[in-house]
């Protein structure tokens, strides 16, 4: 017998789950959210991986490490003289933790304001849309729901040749908690997370070696952007080794080191590091999410099968965020949470998966939306390209930060914008205007005829649009489009 009844029960309190729960409550639905997250001290926190050990703490350390290196190496260019710059790593970590704590408390406050009931523990889907809740104290109760939203999030994948020991071999979570700067740091995986964490510790003083199994750097990015970013990051000091397949790891606690064996086209190699960060992907955290008798379609990785509206194979049960197809991005999960809440409330709502922005928060940042050039070539789509380098931007020169460019891709016949790719300082902010342009089906001429403030970095988007038409104003034209 169910003890409590709800219109919606959400399992998972990360960006997908808590946003979905809040939106459900705003729409007048009696809503409960079950979340099992606990910090290292055993305190329950909302926000999931993103807020506690992902997006937010990593960006805090990225920002702090950038300021540290900028003060050390670049302020003199602006006529600012400093004495000896010292690193207070404990203070940097404390700031990160305060930020996380304030934001998690903020979500708790939003739950109270919107009357979302927060259950602290584990939720498991049962038959007939019942959810078994097990508190951290081991006590159980059953919640009956008219609708269930599954938002369990994801967890880091371990290497088959060496599990996390949480001291010498760590996941991204462990890399956010080092108590001292490793003299030599190994990073397995030169993707989004690996690059961000490698960048943090390089700026703070580590010698960073990155081992990437693929033969192309950032193969999911536009090739021109990926090639440029490889040059920049290698010049900054990241030792990025491609086609490097790790075959073995071994911890030597007496020496306080990790040995890593890997193979590439030149044979077998061995490297020793003080710490090793493994960033080879994430998997949906769906183990134990559904009771045995319940038939919910999943694949072998634990990804839940859903349709375009995040409906599962069970009536009244939805799944969102990292547990379903598509990129594992917090903003993608949040939008799915909103869509599902509104559909439950009888509203027509959808997510445009073609206009979801992606960002890598290195310095310079890398951001993109829509299609890239190599895919358009493979598909035989006629297109025009417009590229504008920040070296020609007055604002970028004033900032002493002229690295990178904006690249727009437009259909050669209709002029409709197909994709946008940016590598620059603050690319994560600049990409938003390109997302809006794609969402509204804009043409490059629409951007070209829009007035942008001067001097700003965003003018580079304007100039890239002009370049697709063949008449940029602040770089030589390459030939007008017919």
Automatic annotation (TrEMBL):
<feature type="binding site">
    <location>
        <position position="123"/>
    </location>
    <ligand>
        <name>FAD</name>
    </ligand>
</feature>
<dbReference type="Pfam" id="PF07992">
    <property type="entry name" value="Pyr_redox_2"/>
</dbReference>
<dbReference type="InterPro" id="IPR004099">
    <property type="entry name" value="Pyr_nucl-diS_OxRdtase_dimer"/>
</dbReference>
<keyword id="KW-0274">FAD</keyword>
<feature type="disulfide bond" description="Redox-active">
    <location>
        <begin position="50"/>
        <end position="55"/>
    </location>
</feature>
<dbReference type="GO" id="GO:0006103">
    <property type="term" value="P:2-oxoglutarate metabolic process"/>
</dbReference>
<feature type="binding site">
    <location>
        <begin position="189"/>
        <end position="196"/>
    </location>
    <ligand>
        <name>NAD(+)</name>
    </ligand>
</feature>
<dbReference type="GO" id="GO:0004148">
    <property type="term" value="F:dihydrolipoyl dehydrogenase (NADH) activity"/>
</dbReference>
<keyword id="KW-0560">Oxidoreductase</keyword>
<dbReference type="InterPro" id="IPR036188">
    <property type="entry name" value="FAD/NAD-bd_sf"/>
</dbReference>
<feature type="binding site">
    <location>
        <begin position="328"/>
        <end position="331"/>
    </location>
    <ligand>
        <name>FAD</name>
    </ligand>
</feature>
<feature type="binding site">
    <location>
        <position position="281"/>
    </location>
    <ligand>
        <name>NAD(+)</name>
    </ligand>
</feature>
<keyword id="KW-0547">Nucleotide-binding</keyword>
<feature type="binding site">
    <location>
        <position position="322"/>
    </location>
    <ligand>
        <name>FAD</name>
    </ligand>
</feature>
<keyword id="KW-0520">NAD</keyword>
<dbReference type="GO" id="GO:0005737">
    <property type="term" value="C:cytoplasm"/>
</dbReference>
<keyword id="KW-0963">Cytoplasm</keyword>
<dbReference type="InterPro" id="IPR016156">
    <property type="entry name" value="FAD/NAD-linked_Rdtase_dimer_sf"/>
</dbReference>
<dbReference type="InterPro" id="IPR006258">
    <property type="entry name" value="Lipoamide_DH"/>
</dbReference>
<protein>
    <recommendedName>
        <fullName>Dihydrolipoyl dehydrogenase</fullName>
        <ecNumber>1.8.1.4</ecNumber>
    </recommendedName>
</protein>
<dbReference type="InterPro" id="IPR001100">
    <property type="entry name" value="Pyr_nuc-diS_OxRdtase"/>
</dbReference>
<feature type="binding site">
    <location>
        <position position="59"/>
    </location>
    <ligand>
        <name>FAD</name>
    </ligand>
</feature>
<feature type="domain" description="Pyridine nucleotide-disulphide oxidoreductase dimerisation">
    <location>
        <begin position="356"/>
        <end position="465"/>
    </location>
</feature>
<keyword id="KW-1015">Disulfide bond</keyword>
<keyword id="KW-0285">Flavoprotein</keyword>
<dbReference type="InterPro" id="IPR050151">
    <property type="entry name" value="Class-I_Pyr_Nuc-Dis_Oxidored"/>
</dbReference>
<feature type="binding site">
    <location>
        <position position="212"/>
    </location>
    <ligand>
        <name>NAD(+)</name>
    </ligand>
</feature>
<dbReference type="InterPro" id="IPR012999">
    <property type="entry name" value="Pyr_OxRdtase_I_AS"/>
</dbReference>
<dbReference type="Pfam" id="PF02852">
    <property type="entry name" value="Pyr_redox_dim"/>
</dbReference>
<dbReference type="GO" id="GO:0050660">
    <property type="term" value="F:flavin adenine dinucleotide binding"/>
</dbReference>
<keyword id="KW-0676">Redox-active center</keyword>
<feature type="active site" description="Proton acceptor">
    <location>
        <position position="454"/>
    </location>
</feature>
<dbReference type="InterPro" id="IPR023753">
    <property type="entry name" value="FAD/NAD-binding_dom"/>
</dbReference>
<feature type="domain" description="FAD/NAD(P)-binding">
    <location>
        <begin position="6"/>
        <end position="337"/>
    </location>
</feature>
<comment type="similarity">
    <text>Belongs to the class-I pyridine nucleotide-disulfide oxidoreductase family.</text>
</comment>
